[in-house]
Amino acid sequence: MATVLKKESLYQLLFIACVAVPYFNIYEATFGIWTLTALITISNKYSLTIAKYIACFAAIFVIALVVGAFEDVKPYDFMRDVAYLVKPILGLLIGYQLCKDYIKNPLIILANAGIILGLVHLLLVGYSLGTKSIQNMHQLRENSGYFSDFEVYSVIILFFHRQLGLNISRKKIIIGSTILALSTIFYLSRTNFIQFGILFMALKGYFVINRRSVIVLSSTFLFMIVGYSIIYSYNPNIHASGIEAFLFKIKNAPIEPFKTHVSRENSNDFNDNYRSYENIYTVRQVTGKGPKAVLVGEGMGSSIDLKKKVWLQTSFMRYIPFLHNGFMTIFLKSGLLGVIILIYSISLLFKNKRSDNPTIQNINYMLVGTGIFLIISYWVFMGLYFTVDSKSIIIGFLIRYRENLVRAENKITS
């Protein structure tokens, strides 16, 4: 028993370390800790479900590896892409391997890790507001953090603790939910609000097609259209601060990643629609290199020429190896074949066997919600390939937890 408790504590510490390290935005550290954790927790057996999911990212990786091996690229650029493209595989393995069947309430680990991250974020927000001249939301986000998909999962788990079979005290639910809700709000991230809405509706069962879900989804869609129309009519100022700046981000959200023409000379057009600019030049460059590049991409070490230097996080760059759009990034590295495999990987999250066990079924709902959100996440923030993202760990964890519950149920009924 003591050995089991020691292992459980070790796995919890490893889990927290793996989800916390990406927030430092030092990918070398993330890659090192994730690789070490994946190796020391390696399992003897893996299910067909997780094997199929990992195989999708392995196939994308192999295509880029083989194509890049025949291209004239710098060794550093080649190895950098190897480390980046292996990230979803490492995350899935870590999540799957850390969720052991003898851990009584694995989802509490996710909730606790999120509360710790949320508390740290609120301390950063307080420190930034108290010691720095924060004039607008852009400065606040720059100093305290841009987003946290992990915290959204944690607050969802607390909100639906009964449906997920978690025995948590009311006091912890209130304190944890308050910390996570405030932290999520202070990120002022459009995608996090969308993520919360999608996961909330998923766990309510609204993505199961029936009369009730059609009414709810239709009403939600109508509400969004009306709300967006009001914001669009209000026409928030691009240079505003505070709430108005956030409203401008909402107004620009449906346009920003889908424009087919962006002017390099018009600074407002360029800055507001930069994601579209990346997409436009990726399509032009890859298609301009012929059918082979369109089919299998340009491989490891490839990059997109933006035709001008752009400030990206820490420096001005003209040639970028990865884009905001995950689909376009894979199109660059592994072509249409890679994009098709990536889309197929998302579809796997919808293929869950229905269960009469409410906990298992609600985990299925969470995976379905994750799949829907990934479509958006890949389009605006690279999805599972984003270097400061840990959703792949959560997915691997949820898949393994569902399998543990199914096995335990089968033992009882056999």
Describe the overall structure:
The chain contains 18 helices and two strands. It is about 70% helix and about 5% strand. Helix 3 packs antiparallel against helix 5 and helix 17 (about 360-380) runs antiparallel to helix 18. The relative contact order is 0.14. It has a two-stranded antiparallel ribbon. The chain has a domain at about 40-95 and about 290-414. The two termini are about 25 Å apart. The chain is globular. It comes from Flavobacterium cerinum. This is O-antigen ligase domain-containing protein.
Summarize the structure.
This is O-antigen ligase domain-containing protein. The chain has helices at residues 2-20, 27-40, 48-69, 75-85, 87-98, 106-131, 137-144, 149-159, 170-187, 190-203, 211-234, 242-252, 267-272, 274-288, 291-296, 326-348, 358-381, 391-413; strands at residues 304-312, 315-320. It has 414 residues and is mostly helical.
The helix/strand series, from N terminus to C terminus, equals: HHHHHHHHHHHHHHHEEHHH
Biggest beta sheet attributes:
2 strands, antiparallel
* Unreliable residue stretches: none
Mean pLDDT across residues: 88
Helix content: 55-70%
Number of strands: 2
CA radius of gyration is: 22 Å
Q: First CA to last CA: what distance?
A: 26 Å
Beta-strand residue fraction? under 5%
Q: Give the count of helical stretches.
A: 18
Strands in their spatial order, largest beta sheet:
1-2
Give the overall shape: globular
- As an assembly, this protein is single chain
The computed structural class is mainly alpha
